[in-house]
Amino acid sequence: METIYELGQKMIDNCIKEKIQAGDVVTFDKATGRIVKMGRSFSRARDYDATGAQTRFVQCPDGELQKRKEVVHVVSIHEMDVINSRAQGFLALFSGDTGEIKSEIREGINVKVGEWREEGKAEVVPGVLFIDEAHMLDIECFSFMNRALENEMSPVIIMATNRGMTRIRGTTYVSPHGIPIDLLDRMVIIKTNSYDQQDLKKILAIRSEEEDVDLEEEALEALTKIAVDSSLRYAIQLITTAGVVAKRANKAQVSVAHVRRVYSLFLDEKRSTKYLEQYQNEYMFDEPDEIDETKKVVVKDDNDGEASAGTSVEEVDLTGDGDAHSA
Q: Model confidence over 31-57: pLDDT tens digits?
């Protein structure tokens, strides 16, 4: 099948650039003018042709030559909002000045995307929103999220928290994880388990590689024991400090002695709490266990300087809870 096409100057320049000649199998993109050389046709190959090792021989296509190609563009809803809310169109994405999106434009984009979905022209892929320390959100944030989740184009929300039964911020109500019950009922809760000793050892080994710290096997075992007794974060922080101590000692590897050194210098949460309980009276502004807020004011006689049998002695309560008594 032979067909005659009229090529523009841009396509002609591309043909010259690709060194296309008779017998080559090529593809044309009418939208962009791009030409791709697929190879040389087997029917035009000759034994005397001077071809290199990079030359490819392909079958000549048959059937309908002109085909409609479907191109898929991936854009976000926010990018569509910016393009339709600025006079410069898609160039506003490069300037960075997105500004505020009006509600009319936002609703119009939702209607247009809904039409494209019904016609099969578009497919909505929900995004993912990760919220760490979700218990720090207040009741207004939870109310907004509860309403936003009802939208069909809402993202997948992942919340992480380490709280148990605690008060919802902004209220006096106590709820599991500090999240309202109605929002918690719409979630799928994933249970996490604590790391065992082998998992802690693998994590510390990976972390030491990321920190470019070479640990001896005994040092790794010592850090694993510290992670079991105290916490994983504390053991990870000791990797960097132990590496600094080893470099100051001109050692290529971190040994157990270096781990013991930094373990004695930097306290973990348990040892720090125990130290404060032991020496709390030696710190400034320490509050004793029981504070006697009741003070006594004794009125002395002006003549003798001491209270006599006929002198009135008043006991005043400074707390404001009780009444003053006289004796």
A: 666 777 777 777 666 645 556 666 777
* Cα dihedral sign, 116-122-123-125: negative
State the DSSP string of 194-261: ---HHHHHHHHHHHHHHTT--B-HHHHHHHHHHHHHS-HHHHHHHHHHHHHHHHHTT-SSB-HHHHHH
For residue 27, the cross-strand partners are 36
Mean pLDDT of 107-133: 86
Residue type at 13?
D
Q: What is the pTM of this model?
A: 0.53
Classify each residue of 50-76 as buried b or exposed e, where b means 16 or more C-beta atoms within 10 Å of its C-beta. Answer: eeeeeeeeeeeeeeeeeeeeeeeeeee
The amino acid sitting at 287 is E
Q: What is the number of other CB atoms lying within 10 angstroms of the CB of residue 248?
A: 9
Question: CA geometry: angle at 79 spanning 75 and 83, to 5°?
Answer: 120
- For residue 94, CA distances in Å to 51, 129, 250 come to 46, 24, 50
Distance between CA atoms of 228 and 239, rounded to whole angstroms? 15
Match 């993109």 to its residue by tokens.
29
Model confidence at 196: pLDDT above 70: yes
Residue 25 bridge partners (DSSP): 39
pLDDT digits (tens, 9 = 90+) for 50-109: 566 667 777 777 766 666 667 777 888 878 877 777 665 555 555 666 667 777 888 888
